Amino acid sequence: MKAITAIGVLVSSLLLAVMLHHTVISSKPAIEDGSTFIKSRQPDTVVSTYSAARVHMVTSQVQPVFLEVIEAETDPDRRTAALARSLESVSTAELPGALDALALYATPGAAELRQLLLRRWAEGEPATAAAWVSRLADGPVRRSALEQVAIAWAQIDLAAASDWVRRLPADDSRPTATLALAYEAARTDPTVALELASPLPPTRERDDLLVHAVSQWPKTDFPAASAWAMKVPDPSLRQRLVAAVAVASAQQNGTGAATLAASALEAGNEQDRAVVSIVQRWAQNAPLAAANWMTQFPDVPLRDTALNNLLSIWVGQDPTSAHRWLQDLPSGPLKTVGYRAYTQALTNQFQSLLGQQSEQF
Questions:
Q1: What one-character-per-residue DSSP string does 25-82 give?
Q2: What is the C-alpha to C-alpha distance for residues 331 and 329, in angstroms, rounded to an integer?
Q3: Positions of the chain with pLDDT under 70
Q4: Which of 130, 133, 201, 202 is nearest to 161 (CA)?
Q5: What is the pTM of this model?
Q6: Per-residue pLDDT tens over the stretch 24-39
Q7: Closest CA to 263 of 305, 230, 301
Q8: End-to-end CA distance of the chain, in Å?
Q9: What is the Cα gyration radius of the chain?
Q10: Do 285 and 255 touch, CB atoms closer than 8 A?
Q11: Where are the domains of the chain?
């Protein structure tokens, strides 16, 4: 009965929202908030749909008509408004029943409503919402519900949420909840995210999370992040993590980032990508320092690529200083490549200016 009552509230709210937006109540082309009238649905059709839904409600035969209406709505603003009114119409006491009822429907609309309702519940009563989720059978619905609870709980009490995921049954649900929680934790405390994710089985999803979390750490503690990444036993993963730390710290600590990439990364694609990214970020704040560091690189294609990226940024900021640096270089391949990159950067800048002027005229 609780499920039927709660779903009835949802039906009423959604259908009233549809009537407000789809019934033609004026001959004017637009309503006060600027929304356009939908004239394809006639008033008698809306009334017929509403009456049919009322019959389903009164006879306690719940039908998915309200979900079909939401899924058929193509206007994002009207869809969002209808969902918002539906959420507001369900009290906290009615949430379990509404969620139980929505779990019967495997449709996109039902999934969206279920996620929104569960997120609202978890934001107010995370432990109670988690207890409800624990009753669900393992599967996509349970995993999606665990994600919503983990995200909401992390924003309220990260320590309690962490304790909750560690006590989840050791099935497919635990990694799902842990990943969701760790991504949220990485925003405020990347060390907690790394502690949560490290014990998980090695998967692409886990490794991507570790890379994301460790890239947040250098903002507050570059030495600690570097040291942690260097200790990871998996060689391939270690290279990704060290590169992530180096790139993330490049704008704040260009020298440290460049040194880490040059000394800790093996020659290859990972190092190439990291060095180019570091130079790009370092050049935003200290192009001369980045340029001087590059002179220490051997004459390899990576140096040429990094130099092209550096001068593209530097010429846009201060072409005079960039040209002066090139003039002071000793004759050789680096100077030749540098002048070629400098000329190309000036050409690109000039063409961009011409394009802007032609658009004005």
A1: --SSSB-TTSPBP--SS-HHHHHHHHHHHHHHHHTT---THHHHHHHH---HHHHHHH
A2: 6
A3: 1-69, 357-361
A4: 130
A5: 0.74
A6: 333 333 323 332 222 2
A7: 230
A8: 69
A9: 29
A10: no
A11: 1-125, 301-353
